[in-house]
Amino acid sequence: MQPQKVDFVSIPTRDLDRAATFYGETLGFGRDPLSNSTWPEFTAGNVTLAVVIPEQIGMDFVPLPTGVIAIRVPDVADARAELEQQGIAFEGDTFDSGVCHMAFFRDPDGNGLMLHHRHKPYHDGSTP
């Protein structure tokens, strides 16, 4: 095997329209113009988020655990406040690991998401 990159991350849903609205409008990810209504995809920097109904591909619906998808934002506190104004509930306080700030929440299907901002340099020495 010669892995090249991760092409997309699947996000399970029970309601494609609701999920597409959440990821496209609430979170503000751009919709991939090549995606369709049965497999909506959203551009998230270098990763594509593909919203899928698992039962349509022979799998059971199981929400992603807390923090599986970390969404980089310039300021976690500001992003959190903006989402809270839209009715998004967060799980606990914003956490500072000493390297980054994180705030955990869920999408309408219960998938675990995280706002994330690294405030220390990355392993390669680059800055956030």
Structural account:
With 128 residues, the protein is α/β, with parallel strands linked by helices. It has two domains: 1-62, 2,3-Dihydroxybiphenyl 1,2-Dioxygenase, domain 1 (Roll), CATH 3.10.180.10; 63-128, 2,3-Dihydroxybiphenyl 1,2-Dioxygenase, domain 1, CATH 3.10.180.10. It contains two helices and eight strands, in the order βαββββαβββ. The chain has helices at 16-26, 76-85, and strands at 9-12, 30-31, 41-44, 47-52, 69-72, 95-96, 100-106, 112-118. The strands form two sheets. It has a four-stranded mixed sheet, covered by helices on one side. The longest helix has 11 residues, at 16-26.
List the keywords.
8 strands; 2,3-Dihydroxybiphenyl 1,2-Dioxygenase, domain 1; 16% helix; 128 residues; alpha/beta; four-stranded mixed sheet; 2 domains; 28% strand
Summarize the structure.
The chain contains 2 helices and 8 strands, in the order βαββββαβββ. It is an alpha/beta fold and 128 residues long.
